[in-house]
Amino acid sequence: MDFVRSTVLMCGALLLGCGGGDGGAGGKGVSKDVDRGDLEPHDSADPTDVEDSGTPAPAPDDDPEEEVRDAIGETRASASELRGFESWNLEVPLASDAIDYDGDRDLYKMAIPVGATAFLAVRSTGDADLKLTVMNASGATIGESRQMPYWAWGRDPGLWVSARGAGALFVEVSSESEFEALSGYELLGTVVDGDDGEPNDTAEDAAARLTDGTAGFRASIVSPSLGTEFMGSFQHSSETDFWAFDAPSSGLMSWSLWATGSPVLEPSLTLYDSAFTPLAWTDKPHFLGGGTWLDDLGLLASVNAGERYYLEVRNQRPAFGAGTTYVGVSEMVGVVTSEWEPNDEGSQANGLSLSPSTSHPGYSSGTTHGSLDGVDGVDVYSLPVESMAGGYLSVHVQAGSVGSGLTPRAIVCSDLDGTDVLGVLDAGEGGDLSLLDVELAEDLPAVFVRIEVASRREALNGNRYVLGLERYTVPLHD
Hints:
Jelly Rolls; 3 helices; eleven-stranded mixed sheet; 2 domains; five-stranded mixed sheet; 478 residues; mainly beta
């Protein structure tokens, strides 16, 4: 399936009608969620706790007697200590080392002042897919990253650390790819000042902060091409932060949070339009990379150029002050075509054509998005039977993972009324679905895809979905 997903990124455009179209998803990706674990809302461990929880380094396969040595320790007791935070900057690496063998994990010890906020990143100089993990003094994971939002440094990870207590923190660099050869990296870090402008506890406050320029928006620390970045923290346990955004163009706009290394921060996001109607919700707002179809990126909404939108940020834990700094990014998500109404019946179906792959003969794919609000309970799409029959079709519907309140149902059928069903699937608890390898016989009269409402959080609003389609000549899934 890896080649399928990479193909989707390159040629996922969905052409509408008779060969027209606006292109694909803009290379914004496709993948799986990351379990961040059950983190305790405190860090009271004794910084002198240096229990050795590591395992000995394995010997190379070709010489079991040869001992593998690594200058960087694998346990908290043997961790290499990073230089003082006062000299941190992204130009001079904190450490340069390598993943030396299968299972290698390099552990570093650091200390930053209570209330300070640091940014940590790993720049790969080899081929390994690296993972960056931050642990407290007792070795409990308080944050991890596999990639930055919107792949700002390709597959290189990065996260923010907001110091809660005076205990030591540990940074681990490891690999998630199969070991093939020594793979170098640089560990980078810098301490950053910044916060949200106060007051910003209401939409009216957010509008005022946007107008007077004190909101807390900032240029990205890693890439000038990354969208608008914003940094804030919580000053009391019941505080809610609001941010005002004016859409730079029409299309799909996303809001994501960076991964953070803090045991007391568990943010949630809600997006509102200018009339304060909720459009999207999520308690998993971090950019996690590949999802059901597009990247699992937090919130996604259809916006109109120049219109005002408000983002509400809450901490689901009662903590405030030190350790509650969050950093977010808003960005327009490529060019993804949209449904058009009416398309509630087979006779009104939106005509879609998939784009063929330039590198994998017989494979084609495409992306569109729509919504099922109010009386709109079904959207119907028709696919050109002459290019579909005799192959297999997979239907991916992304809703819950992009902040939608919709639980969708997907149906593939061969008639206008949706009674000759070839495949059907309801989304699970997460709100996404993948209906895989629906066989399309050679003699099919037509091919329709119906997206229906299984359930909705709010009947009138917030029921957006992304539809990804892929067609191929042989089954691709187990």
